[in-house]
Amino acid sequence: KMVAPIFGIGLFVAALIVQFERNKNSVMIPFNTVWYFVLILFGALSGMWAQFFTSYNVAFLVRLVVIMLICASISIYVDDMEDLDRSLSMFIAASVIIVLLEFTAVPSDGWKNGGVGRYFSGINPNDITVWIDFATAAAFYRAYVNEKRWMYIVVALFIVFCSFSGSRKGMLASVAAPLLIVVLSTHKNGYALRVIAAVLLVAGLFLLVMENETLYSAIGKRLERMFDTFKGEDSDGSIRMRQHYIDVAKDMFRQSPIIGKGMGNYSRILESEYASGNFYSHNNYWQILSEMGMIGALIYFSMYAYCLVSFIRGYFIQKRKIAILFLTAILMMIVLDTGIVSYCTKYGQMIITLCYCGTYAMKTDGGRRYRYEKA
């Protein structure tokens, strides 16, 4: 249990030393670190005011502090666009390693049953696919926008992983993110044809999934259930159960709309007062509102708003190519948060951290290299 805190502290200290040497004996704490610290501090106070504040809450806060230190280390390291490029390379490489390790652990019937991604690490597919979805977007950006064609192999690897992960959200995001990058890349020659080709490719993949028996068993059935949900049907009961979790979060928010029921307390109240088990709400917005109220939600989503405005400005006004990737990433997180809880996981927070790094790395690109050019 002490490995993660020691690792987080060690990484943070190492990053401070590097910054100290690089910036001639000066140290600056990144804004996103202050932001997450304020969230943790308010969460701790909201927990003390709530009905539950035990050793569980302390352990929950320690976990968030470790996440903060790891993310702070990334923010401290990234000083310009070259550092950001290097960080993205390491992120993609780490994702490739994770995917390959997970593939080696899949049993013979695992591909047909779905759930790839939980056999090696045991991590919730909704969590790990958030990481891989961003890696898919980053790899596709390099392949399509920066024209590093060999990266398409990496993109395909990631999409296969997400498709067989058992996470409908992760699967759709792994396809939607590259498609959005194509749509945003208006500087490309033959733009309309490229968009049409991308849409046709996605349609072709959909037909392949629905017609192939193995692909249908692992992927197609989940897509059908998702379409049933849009039509107001619920064939397997999972959507109804998730809606119940969200309804509980709404009820908790109504009881304490300003400060919530205490950071980390949703699952405990769900189990003790609603007899619905020890689960999370499957919705980042309602999880935060139920635990930390409107104040906590304003603190947390202020970073989303800052990143979104920065990348919209970078894309439309400053014409930064990198804004294509990070505008895709922050929009992806905004949508995915309707079905996951990311504020307290390292996977979601590392993506938000890289998005924040992109906001100030854009200011250092220095000219044509990272601007739109006809291709």
Highlighted features:
about 375 residues, mainly alpha, about 70% helix
As a whole number of angstroms, the C-alpha radius of gyration is 21 Å
Q: What is the 3D form?
A: globular
* Strand element count: 0
Helix content: over 70%
Strand fraction band? under 5%
Structural class: mainly alpha
Along the chain, the helix and strand elements come as HHHHHHHHHHHHHHH
Count the DSSP helices. Answer: 15
Low-confidence stretches: 366-370
Main beta sheet: none
Our measurement of the CA-to-CA distance between the termini, rounded to an integer number of angstroms, reads 51 Å
Average pLDDT taken over every residue: 84
Structural features, described:
With 375 residues, the chain is mostly helical. The protein has a domain at 81-232. 71% of the residues lie in helices and 0% in strands. The chain is built from 15 helices and no strands. It has helices at 3-22, 31-49, 55-77, 81-104, 110-113, 125-144, 151-163, 168-184, 191-211, 213-230, 238-255, 266-272, 284-316, 322-336, 346-361. Helix 4 packs antiparallel against helix 15 (346-361). The N and C termini lie far apart (51 Å).
A few lines on this structure:
With 375 residues, this protein is mostly helical. It contains 15 helices and no strands. The protein has a domain at 81-232.
How is the secondary structure organized here?
Layout: H1 3-22, H2 31-49, H3 55-77, H4 81-104, H5 110-113, H6 125-144, H7 151-163, H8 168-184, H9 191-211, H10 213-230, H11 238-255, H12 266-272, H13 284-316, H14 322-336, H15 346-361
Helix pairs in contact: 1-3, 2-3, 2-13, 3-15, 4-6, 4-7, 4-15, 6-7, 6-8, 6-14, 6-15, 7-8, 8-9, 8-14, 9-10, 11-13, 13-14, 13-15, 14-15
